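pasting input
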Amino acid sequence: MHMLKYLLFEGGLYKHERILEFLEDVGGFLVQKTVVGLDLIMNLAVPEEEHERLSGIVSELKGKLSPAPLIGTEIGVVAPTLSRHHLPHPACDIAENLRRHGAKTNIIGLSRGVGQKIVHTTIKEKELIEEHDIAVFTLGNFERCLMKKTKLFSEIEVPVIVTGGPLMKSIPGAEAYVGGIGRYPERARTGESIEKLREVSRVAGEVVEQRRREMDLDPLIVDPIVVKAEIERQVPESTEALSPNPVTLKIDGVRVKLPYDEYKDKIGNISIGEKKLSEFAVIKRSLMRNYILVKVLPKSMF
Amino acid sequence: MDSSEELGGQQYKYIAEKSVEDLGLGGSIDSIDMLIRVEEPVFIIVIRYKEVTGKSTLGDASYIDSRKNGIRITLSSEIFLGDALKVLWSKYGRDRVEQIGRLEIFVSGADPEEVKGIRLSEKGYDLESRINELAARIIPEGFRVRSSTKEKGMITIIASEDPIKEDWRVLARRLEGDAHA
């Protein structure tokens, strides 16, 4: 299967059908479409070799096309607790910026993310965080405290990015560290602080690209984006769920925001090519509101 | 601000300033002193504030003079403004109450004696609970063991993860001394 490239389109509604038709012709996908007045933002996936032709169409429509590796990822933003010490700033700022770059985000507050001694992540919290493609932990202002809190994420199996106040290069147990964003009491609105948020998104993009490259060595049987499209076609209720982004695309699968007990068989029975989904994917109950998690298996499993 | 990690200390100064602003306590706070020793760990905060007590009626909290067709109320502090407008609106209606300045309210056709007796709020102005809220917002959440002392116009809180040590109380006394100066 050819590699897909993830792109963010920003432009007008006028004649945008041309882009959709083009995607259909070349085997690309529309991941998400957001209409704001006359403006349109679309998250797209196109085969790499078709990127240039798409750019041509977009420039004719006077739109803007930018690479956005975070499209098709679900990122968990983890705050030490849900109290006002840690929310809404900076967790929501970071989440918002990640969404601007195409990611779907969920915010998670730990029950015991505070204190140098009592700090820990419960097994359930760990599982919930691992449902995401990447986790971003938003920690505080003191280097010493941060170093004591590495056990919050050192055992988490998905890549972890940590943000904190001290200007360190890295932190043990995490894939990446972004300094200069500690605990702060208001919305980020200076150029400097917004630049920091962008850096988190940029680093997240790198982590995702790395993960995709690794997965390319043992690709999934079916690209999750195909699974998403087929679920939406064969189980139309999935698109009518009121949750945001009812079929959320992830790097190695999808999250379907329908109740597990009622729909697990329907989802498992959808056919893709010659096979049923349940034959090449693990379908399990999500810890998040009984949603359905679909994890597509790699080719090496068969 | 006295911190064992400079950058973190600066950040906490900013958090304190912003929290004062959020709670609208700017006019009531004289000073905030913080001492942070992450390695212990201990966080000491001393807040000095202007005490406002016994101002439970509008007469206590303001100067009232009669005008041609109404009365002018001049509040002694901005912190009473919200409560004062609330009670005046509910008694005289929005049409008759006009805020003419930062601290001044005009009520048309009201009797000064009657206005003097209006109660501002059920239990007087509760500055203390807002000061406590301020301290709770600033102190790092993980520092759950707390010891607080209160004097007239000053509250001191020592917060840590361990039982409070005698040394820290000494540090707190010293910080209180600085706050007086």
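fyi The beta strands of chain B are 2-3, 29-37, 42-49, 62-67, 70-75, 97-99, 104-108, 145-151, 154-160.
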